[in-house]
Fold each of these.
Amino acid sequence: MERVRSSEAGAAVEVVAGWLSAAKSVAVLTGAGISAESGIPTFRGPGGVWKTYRAEELATPEGFARDPKLVWEWYDWRRSVIAEAQPNAGHRALAALEARAERFTVITQNVDGLHDRARSRNVLQVHGDIWTLRCIVCGRERRDLCPRLEPLPPYCACGGMERPGVVWFGESLPQGIWEQAVKATKAADLFFVIGTSAVVHPAAGLVYMAKSAGARVVEINVDDTPVSSSVDLCWRASAAQALPQLL
Ligand code: BV8
Ligand code: ZN
């Protein structure tokens, strides 16, 4: 297992570019780190959003039931930050790399929609979408791109309160999307895990699934993570610096 540090980034580019040209099907798991260079704070890093808030209060059904207004204030703030953000060179490089393999799937834990805005064509949002609102009474979903919702919490035409269309802790992932993510992971001969602390399951489990299905696994992260010791190549670099080098 090769551990390439950013100082030997040249070596990483050569090796990964070689694996990419030989790959028929590529799957990529991304986390908040790929959006960091778009100005969107990560969850667990220095200055991460979980620092100012506690995850269990905000990203759980119990937290929402207890204080829907507080949870909505947090999501409304995040929506306003994301509305100002642009896809960065990392998102754009991933979209461009799609043409390099017969099958190329982006599996993202991010709810910011930046992969779609960067024109990636095959994106699986396994933790939902921050722009989607879902009524807790009638279940109707709608996309609302207005970064400052009025009133908070928002209400559905049926009178029911709406929640963010994201997956909270203790909630299962959207069935169909998760199945597609597993299928793409098992079929991949090259798997990237980019900008995730790999502590949230079942998403983080895709890395081990790819490995045991025989894929080569490349981690692109500025830091060590629990999967770093299991991947074939650790590329210690930011996503916006590393990915464009593969083009
Ligand atoms: C479920 C909501 C059950 C959306 C989120 C014990 C063991 C295993 C699992 C569990 C356990 N106890 C509880 C669980 C289950 C739990 C879980 O995993 N908990 C963890 C914390 C222990 N999981 C769940 O509850 C999941 N559901 O299991 O359901 C079930 C099953 C069947 C039927 C019914 C129920 C649901 C998980 C989804 C939770 N929702 N958020 C939102 O508001 O965004 S999770 C939250 O963390 C975000 O969604 C985010 O996507 C996710 C992961 O965070 P990351 O993306 O990795 O971001 P982070 O800040 O952590 O890391 C950033 C990384 O980037 C760092 O490594 C950093 O070094 C790097 N970086 C920074 N800058 C850069 C960079 N890398 C590259 N370039 C840079 N420039
Ligand atoms: Zn409704």
Amino acid sequence: MSSFQTLLETSLKTYCEERFVQPEQLTDRQWYQFIAEVSQQAVLQSFPHNPPLVSTRKVNYLSMEFLIGRLLGNNLMNLGVYDQVQQLLAKCGKNLVDILEQERDPSLGNGGLGRLAACYLDSMASLSQAAVGYGLHYQYGLFKQLIGYHGEQLERGDAWNRDFYPQQYHRADLQQKVGFGGQVVHLQDDKYQWQPEWEIFGEAFDLPVVGYKGVQQPLRLWQGYSETDFDFAVFNDGDYLHAESRVIDASKLTKVLYPNDNHQEGKALRLMQQYFHCACSIADILRQHLAQGRSLEQLPEFEVIQLNDTHPAIAIPELMRVLLDQYELSWEKAWSICSKTFAYTNHTLLPEALEQWDQTLVAKLLPRHIIIIERINNELHHLVKAEFNEDEFAQAWYETAVLMDNRVRMANLCVVGSFAVNGVAQIHSDLVVSDLFPAYARLFKGRFHNVTNGVTPRRWIRQANPALSALLDQHVKGDWTKDLELLRQIEPLAKDPQFQRAYQAIKQQNKQALAQVIEQEIGLKVNGEAIFDIQIKRFHEYKRQQLNLLNIIATYQEIKANPEQAVVPRLFVFAGKAAPGYFLAKQIIQAINNLAATINSDPDMQGKLQVAFLPDYRVSLAEKIIPAADVSEQISLAGKEASGTGNMKLALNGAITIGTLDGANVEIAEFAGEENVVIFGHTVESVRELRANGYNPREYYEQDDVLRNAIDALTDGSFANGDQHRYDALVDNLINHDPFCTLADFASYRAAQQEIAKRYQNQTAWVESAILNTARLGAFSSDRSIRDYQTRIWKKA
Ligand code: 9GP
């Protein structure tokens, strides 16, 4: 009997004896608690950690977000004990899938950025790449989304951690102390002493990340607490959480995750969170490094600090501060260590998401750091002066300066302080160099790289799609879960009728399962024969859910006008949250829900058209939707979506992408073959031209009858219970501004949608395309991304 089997059986005996029950009498909740505790014990006792550093350094992955999702199923699978647990439960009349539903989803992230961090932890542990994930232990994760009576988004707190959550443990031994405010005394020359006004403690919670046949490594999350409160008024932002008092409890520091995706809110408390995260993490990294008898000079040889976006940028001046003030190194030595240790991943080009902090605020909150940043800025000034001639200098300095117009530009700080900078898909990385940082690219040759994002096949195929996994197991030699490129082996089967039937039957079964979820969640009975057309992601104008919305309205109007016309039935499924303060995104959600109510109750649409908005999009819901998708909507304006990762998950599970040439769609089309995706819309270059010629969305509105009728339906009360003004802001924005060129891409999107309907009618060709998407997209495994980081960035210096 395996040691896990013994642990399982003896622990079950004790668990039941303590409760005076037989195993058959345990509730689902008790089973969940029991299995979670036993698996945690198994992880801690027997799973190896501390993998050796061979050709790479240890990775310290600093991220304000880790959207880890449910862990139990994933851990059982990666421990290799999933089947044993399933068998034990079956003996007691239970189903493991139902038990796993008991777990709370820790929503410690907003969207793609946080989910990517979680996939990377999984891959690093699976590849035995030594790593620690450093994040924050928010007491409330991303808000829960409800849909109100009028179709509007409502937000509720998500106290994930108040529930039973056995996947973490408190590391009291790792406590840190973090200072804020106060003053700096200039001792002499380069010597300064910071006397902070407040100190807050950082407590560590570790969540072991279990790799697939690999090792376990910690995701270390910091939570704030203090024995005294601090006067928040000093930071000019007393309104946080509508606090009645301007003196707030320090434990509130890590109370909530800011709910913005690709948008900076600029609140002082967020900066405090960022610094707290970085200060605790840097201290922890140095503690471990020095404990192994290594010197500070050896830091870049053994450690890399990967900055996940600019959110942890303040780690750069923090490491400088510690090296200068605590260890009394010279500026030159400290900078040499620092600039060889950090690497920065850029995840966005959107100006509203590129963080800049008010310099006065930074100076009040972190007075020592601002002195360091000023020095970095001065040193940079010399470099730029040396590289650019007089005519070029003004522009180059405008682009590269870290301090400009009383702002601290965090992306610039990251580029200056890192030895490597990468974008997250080829087109994005090219734009980072050509549009965002051209002067830096000239100044720091060889610093810029691309690492295309990836997703973990363990969660997004093996766990989310067990039926497809079983089919792949049957036909693929070798462990595709660990080497996703092995899926190429099914390419020759794409035309095989028997394989096609099996693949198609699995899709149909997954669609039935999703149909049940939809009925449970929103009471809508859907047509399982329809095309399941899926758009799941954060709501943001640049992601253009409004384009999808307008096409559905146009389709609805067309069916109404031609009731006899044959229609390929379609179910449009949406899920996603909008930032609570993002009015237009919330209007789009409301319009979709109102449109859904009209369409779903119209007898003329029966068997032809349905719309479902599934509330509270989260990792566990994504796992149910993705395997059932026929069509994957990736319709952002070209140049705006850095990469996307939902596009990869959907395509690997056999959905056909309808998309623009944006982010990783470009590479998906290359790998899958252009005939196995449907591309539409303007390209980065043609968008540039469109704007150069003075883009006027109103012209499209006036010239295209189908488009105009669709937009007008938003102002005639059809989808708003007669209220003609509900969507005024949305409509005004589309017709008069349209910053994301929705109207310019409408006709081409509509044609692409018609192409999808046409292709779907030839099921043999459709399934062949779907199979080829699964077979050819192995490169989008996050294991490949991690290997790219290892060879391009994390290699030993
Ligand atoms: O918007 C990008 C998304 O395209 C990308 O897939 C993800 C992971 O790289 O990062 C998102 N960026 C942000 O959330 C903010 O920079």
